[in-house]
Amino acid sequence: MVDLVYFQLLSAALFVIGLYGVMARRSAVLIVMSIELMLNAVNINLIAAASHMDGTGKFANFDGQLIAIFVITVAAAEVGLALAIILRMFRNKSTVNVDEINLMKW
User: What pLDDT, in 10s, does the model give residues 8-58?
Assistant: First the structure.
């Protein structure tokens, strides 16, 4: 059985890579992909922690998995909505570069 520390290190590394992608990228599609990477890092951490928990309750071992499924569901909805917004911005402005999009300005 693999120690929990290794899963936490993997999760932290993926989260930092995703955070760097959000902060450094200019393309809206790559920013959404980086957010998905961060959410998957959280899922790895949740599932690893749930597998290492002491199963004392009826659903004690499945708490992390249930929360991870909820996060995956929210992430799928977020990607669908984000891509729809990005496609609409591309249709209006002919770019997905977040530096060039100023839709909130008058």
Answer: 999 999 999 999 999 998 888 999 999 999 999 999 998 888 888 766 655
4-93 CATH fold: Helix Hairpins (1.10.287)
> 60 with 54: CB under 8 angstroms?
yes
Q: What Å distances lie between residue 4 and 10, 38, 46, 48, 59, CA to CA? A: 10, 19, 11, 7, 20
Q: Backbone phi, then psi, for 36, in 5-degree steps? A: -65, -40
The tokens for 20 are 């760097």
Instruction: Give CA–CA dist 65/44, Å, rounded.
Output: 10
